[in-house]
Structure formats: structure tokens, C-alpha cells
Amino acid sequence: MQVSIETTSGLQRVMTIGVPAAELEQKVTTELKRIAKGQKVNGFRKGKPLPANVAKRMFGKQARYEAIYQQMQQSFFQAVQQEEVKLAGMPSFEPTVDEEGKDLEFKATFEVYPEIALADFAGIEVEQKSASVTDADVEKMIDTLRKQNAQWNESEEAAEDGDQLSIDFEGFIDGEAFEGGAAKGYSLTLGSNSMIPGFESGLVGAKAGTEVTLDVAFPEDYHKEELKGKPAQFKVTVNTVKKPVLPELNEEFFKSFGVEASDAENFTVEVRKNMERELDRALRNVTKQQVIAGLLATNEVDVPASLIEQEIDRLRQQAVQQFGGGQQLDPRQLPAELFKDQAEKRVLIGLLMNAVIESNELTPSAEKVEQLIEEVASTYQDPAEVRDYYANNPQQKSQVEALALEEQVVEKVLASAKVSQAESSYEEIIREANKPA
């Protein structure tokens, strides 16, 4: 097999491969026998092999087409190994010499992974934050849990922040109703900030059965161009006002969160433990985000277009699953442009992380893997069962090993980066850790 490789542009390569005619013809013969086997042809007894000349006349073109495609795939991947090519994505094939009795020649066009020479980690700045879970944080969390499980009772009293209202409303600009400005039976929680400024606060004090006129203005950055900054008037009818009745801190409430506690004090201890675990993960995540941002800022890398396309397909699939499209929506109907920037960033991050791993010959630390598994196990009633699960499921354990490697990359970068320390709070860290990448 003869192989030559040409660089056309950037990461794109064209490989020209020659395959001896005898090797190809052997495949054509095998494929012809496979296709002809069991075919019913008038004038020939069913189950008996067709004469070679008849089979070739009837199925020769199909057999040759399929044999050539198989040969191109096989020869290409052999050549990739032989030439030690770092293949990124799948190739496209084009036969250039395809005549019976002659050597097959074809071109394979593909992309390779970029060669990455990482910039010195000393150029990366990281503000490593610290925080603790305070008594006030725990109290607020328990209050939030109670509110999330509140019962709602209709009330004749005036509406306050935190109350749920059922309302009918219609909006007007310059005295004219506008599209999308009306609804009936709309459920609104006061203080949720789900409406434009002034709308919810204007309903504080209203009672069931009352009508309220609100004079407000759309924000300058409102998502609809025709409404940006426009003054508007809403006529609102309050159908019902519901006030929350918070659950008691009792065993039934504790069990709803999987906590076996006999009193509020023990429940508070468990809540604090969970918050501290969450805070620890969030602090590591915030640091990792800064390390990744530093790697992106200090390294310029060509990204294979084929890898971006693959990532776009994954993001499309995730979007369909997230919004419950199921079988009704073909992910390919979603425009690639919606996902291109995110996909390119994801691929670039992966390339840089792998470059750190390869250049420093990092392998998953057994201690780090055990630590991560223990973090998960500690949240379950039977930690030993969780440990056994990972020990007996190589695929699941490999996911933990990948996370361990990511943390080892972060540690490697931090060892050389310019690291400063900063105090923060539980809420700020959780909010920062959950920001979209």
C-alpha cells in the first residue's frame, strides 16, 4: 500500500493511497458472492449458487461499489496507524483511479489534531476564594426548604411579597392594546421579579376581586425591540390571593428530604453537612473555571472544524432532550449557529485540558478517585453500596477518573500560576459556580 500526505490548509490533510488491484479484486469477488447468495433469479433453481458470469452481470457494479468503499475505509485506517496520524473527525473519500484490473487509487480528506505548545502557566492569574457556611446561611436554607414545600390557602387579606396571585391583565401603549400584553388566569408570585419593574410591587396591598391600574415602563434592554423603554399601562384584575402556610419542622418534613432526624437540631446538622459539601464542590468549580479561563486567554489554538460539528450535534441532541422534543423533533432542524460558539469553546477547552495531561504525563490519581467516590457515597444512607457500585462498574468509574484528571490539571496549573486569596460568602460562591460557562 502506497501512502502520501499533503497539507492543504491549517489542520486539513489529503492522504493519497494506492491499493494493489489483486487486493481489491479479492474483495470484489467476496462481496459479489455475498450479494448473489440467496438471490432468486428466473431460470435458475433457488438455493443453488449463480454462475459467476451471471452474478457478475447482474450484481457486479453493486459489488464493486461496496468493495471499493470497504477497501478505502480499511486502507485509510491502516495508513493512519502506519503514519501515526492524529486523526480528528471522520474523512471523506474520493476514488481517483477506479478501473478493473488497475491498482485502486483514492484521496482521503480529513483534519488532524493541532500540535499545542502550552504557554507558561505563570501567565495565568487565579483568585482562589474561600468561604464558610454560617448559621444565617443554614437558617435561610431551611426557610427556603419550608417555602418550597408550603401549602397555599386562599385569603381575603391584602397581598404581600411571597403571595401567589391569579390575575387577568391587559396592557396598553398610547391607549392601544399591544400583542402579547394580555393573559387570563396568570399565576404570579409577588417578589419573584418575573414581570417588568413596577408590575409586582404595584399589586402589593391588592385583595381578591379588586381591579388595579399599573403605570409602568418597559426596560431599555427588554427582549422585544418594539417595546424597549416604552411607557405602558396595565389593567389588572386580581382573581385570588393565596398565602403560604409553612410546614412544621417535624419528622415527616425531615423524611421528605431523606433525613432521619428526631428534632430540628439534628435536621439542622444534616442540612449544614450538605451545604458544606456543596460549598466545597462549588469552591473547586470556581477555581477550575478561572484556570480554564486562564488557559483560554494565554493559548491560541486552531480548532478542527469536524470536532466542532460533532459537538454541535451533541448540543442539538441535548437541547431536544431538555425540552422534551423526543421523537417529534429532528435535532438537525435546530440551526447550527445557535450552538457554534458554545461548541467551539467546549472543544477548545477539551484540547487544552488534554494538552496539559499529555505534556505532564498525568494519570488519574487513585487517591483522588477514591476521594471523589467518597464524596458521592457520603450523601447516601449506605455508603458501602455506592463504593461497591463504582468498584464493579468500570464505565462509571472511568467517569470519576476523568473528573479526577480535571482536578489534577487544575492543581498542576495552580502550582505555577499567580494565585491570590479572597474571602467570599456561601451564596456568592454557589451563584458564581452555577453561572453558565
From TrEMBL:
Q: Where in the cell is it found?
A: Cytoplasm
Top EC class for this record: isomerase
Q: Name one Pfam family in it.
A: Trigger_N
Q: Provide a Gene Ontology MF annotation, just one.
A: peptidyl-prolyl cis-trans isomerase activity
Entry EC no(s) = 5.2.1.8
Catalytic function, reaction form: [protein]-peptidylproline (omega=180) = [protein]-peptidylproline (omega=0)
Domain (PPIase FKBP-type) spans 162-262
Under Gene3D superfamilies, the record lists: 3.10.50.40, Trigger factor ribosome-binding domain, Trigger factor, C-terminal domain
Isomerase in keyword set:
yes
Record flagged with keyword Isomerase: yes
Mark the transmembrane ranges: none
Principal cellular location given in the protein's record:
cytoplasm
Instruction: List the keywords (alphabetical).
Output: Cell cycle, Cell division, Chaperone, Cytoplasm, Isomerase, Rotamase
- Biological function: Involved in protein export. Acts as a chaperone by maintaining the newly synthesized protein in an open conformation. Functions as a peptidyl-prolyl cis-trans isomerase.
Q: Which PANTHER family match?
A: TRIGGER FACTOR CHAPERONE AND PEPTIDYL-PROLYL CIS/TRANS ISOMERASE (PTHR30560), TRIGGER FACTOR-LIKE PROTEIN TIG, CHLOROPLASTIC (PTHR30560:SF3)
Cited HAMAP family: Trigger_factor_Tig
Q: Per the record, what about its domains?
A: Consists of 3 domains; the N-terminus binds the ribosome, the middle domain has PPIase activity, while the C-terminus has intrinsic chaperone activity on its own.
Which family, according to UniProt? Belongs to the FKBP-type PPIase family. Tig subfamily.
| Record-given protein name | Trigger factor
Q: State the organism named in the record.
A: Thalassolituus marinus
